Amino acid sequence: MASTSAAASRDNGVPGRLRNAASTLYSDNQSLIAEIRKAMILMKEVAVDLERDGQSQMVKELEDAIVELLGTSEDCTQFSAAIQSVGNEHQPRPELTDFKKLFEDEVAKLKASSSFAPQSHPLLRQFREAVWNVHHAGQPMPGDEQEDIVMTSTQCNLLNITCPLSGRPVTELADPVRSVDCKHIYEKKAILHYIKSKHGRAQCPVAACPKILQAERVVCDALLQIEIDEMKSMSKQPGRTDVIEDFTELDDEDEEEEEEEDD
Predict the structure, then answer these.
(1) How confident is the model over 75-84, as pLDDT tens digits?
(2) What are phi and psi of 116, to 5 degrees?
């Protein structure tokens, strides 16, 4: 009886230890992605200086390096997602688990479903646009329509630009955090109070988001502050004071249109 109880206790502890290990690996991988993003920001600044000095060949080499780093960053992102999936979904079995195969299968599924295209990535567009603006500020880039420029330039990695609880812009939050599950951003103190008040059924306060929030899965991840700083930088560019749209507002508008159609 005692041995059976001990075995059950070990089995019950395995998922928790696996999730903790996966969480550590995920955090390390996110830090690597953040360092890649920092490198791309620095490369963009260097490219602008080189363009001013007429070093077009070196600018092109930096652009090629950006494309390569985007691919590396995408690989890291897929690895992070695979780590999370294996860590959260695996359950102990009597037979030995081949974690390497589990991970590789999950990565293969993610790659198969990915629509990643570095040449159309917003960060590459931002790099090219920064270089173009050195000598052609305010002019459309070759082959672009004005509408295309607006749509591409306003793309941002942040899903919401205001905290749904405090109403403050994310660029002004004293302690911003992001949900691991739905990627929405909040003021830390406000969201933790909200989660506590809901007694385990805290649905994300962003309109139309169905995710249930957990305090331990609302964090300041490695990329969040970098992306907020990028938003600040974009909004300070000439003619860009209102370029970043809050996509949660679009969700509200879509809901209203659907309700009108149903009526």
Answers:
(1) 998 998 898 8
(2) -60, 130
